[in-house]
Specification:
Blueprint: H1 7-19, E1 41-45, E2 48-51, E3 56-59, H2 74-84, H3 95-107, E4 113-117, H4 120-135, E5 139-143, E6 156-157, E7 167-168, H5 175-178, E8 181-184, H6 189-198, E9 203-208, H7 224-235, E10 238-242, H8 254-259, E11 265-268, E12 279-283, H9 285-288, H10 307-323, H11 326-347, E13 355-356, E14 359-360, H12 372-377, H13 383-392, E15 395-396, E16 405-406, H14 413-432
Parallel strand pairs: 3-15, 5-8, 5-9, 9-10, 10-11
Antiparallel strand pairs: 1-2, 2-3, 4-12, 6-7, 11-12, 13-14, 14-16
Helix pairs in contact: 2-10, 3-10, 6-7, 11-14, 13-14
The structure holds pyridoxal-5'-phosphate.
Subunit structure: Homodimer.
Pathway: Porphyrin-containing compound metabolism; protoporphyrin-IX biosynthesis; 5-aminolevulinate from L-glutamyl-tRNA(Glu): step 2/2
Subcellular location: Cytoplasm
Amino acid sequence: MSASDSPVSNDLFNRALKLIPGGVNSPVRAFRSVGGTPFFTQSAKGARLTTADGRELIDYVCTWGPAIHGHNHPAIREAVAEALERGTSFGTPNPYEVEMAELIVDMVPSVEKVRMVNSGTEATMSAIRLARGATGRDKIIKFAGCYHGHVDSLLVKAGSGALTLGNPDSAGIPASFAGETIVLPYNDLGALQLAFSEHPEKIAGVIIEPYPANCGLILPQTGYLEALRELCTRHGTVLIFDEVMTGFRIAPGGVQEKTGVTPDLTCLGKIIGGGLPVGAFGGRADLMDHLAPLGPVYQAGTLSGNPLAMAAGITALKLLREGDPYKRLESSAKQLAIALKLAAANLGVALQVPQAGSMFGLYFADKPVTNFDEALASRTELFKPLFQCALDLGVYLPPSAYEACFVSTAHTVNDIARTAEVLTSAIKQISESGPGQ
Ligand SMILES: *Cc1c(COP(=O)(O)O)cnc(C)c1O
């Protein structure tokens, strides 16, 4: 999709650049890592986006995860329209909030009580505060490559030694904040044991994407999550699963349902809002009761539990619980992963395609990626031509080598078959442009 094909998007982007930093309201949308000008979306329906220039694209970004039912699902649209008749926000408790809480507690194994917020970032920020408030400790452990939203104490990267405290991963974060966060490699039990023994009775919480999906897609080695659970229990540390991405996607109850490993707190977002801005955090009732107004940990939100957002989210969750689409979703993602692996094998391209449920990632590497360093060592420069070639052929992949691809229930058998063809030709094109790429 060259600049000359997209006059409307280009004009919009030029106007946006003057008014919005980088022209976007979230940085990855700017296409910096794949090059070119981002397209603007005029409308979206099912598995397809229609660009401002009238092109139709089969979408594997799915609004970065929320659109598990595809875009503009009629039942979600109807639920929002019905809620709209009653008003957009009340500032008092509303009936939707209770129904939403019942659904979450019913679907997510470890959640006994839950509080609604407006984004995944708010959910992780609040869960961290709660872990600290409930334990009276300050330090947090996170894992390299896991993303938990743009919370100060979580936008932290590893220091130089395995056990040094974290360094800020953004300007504007005081080193003293980052110093309360310990960053460890994922899938490394030894590093975890060492951190606990070096900081006895100091670690308030461990926050983890149980399947890291913001640096491609990494899966836990056998026994890793179980051992993490055991260490947290032994040390009185709050285990927080950030299931903003995996919640309701890997299974109705997320990775915790799939693996049987139970965290103390869970962060949710994305799918839970049905495409509206929603997040939530929940967990053990005794922990959640530390929150105001019952306890001393302050947390609040003017628009939290907003009726339109709750109506959309409730409908999205009910469609998952009642429709049980998980087998079909997984088989679509598997089909794409197999097509990619086959194309790469036939053409001698070293490619790993990790897949879990309806999500998959791409690493140009010759063996499976088990942690962030290995992800960084993959040949990400090959992703750019793959992305551009797929886009030219009508398939929209995430515009970054480190983002997972999502399949929705709206992707038809024909969409998947067409996408498999497109990805096969994209791999072919990369392999033909030679090893110098
Ligand atoms: C997207 C994401 C977040 C942040 O959610 P926002 O709604 O963008 O603030 C947090 N954690 C994980 C695992 C995510 O994928």
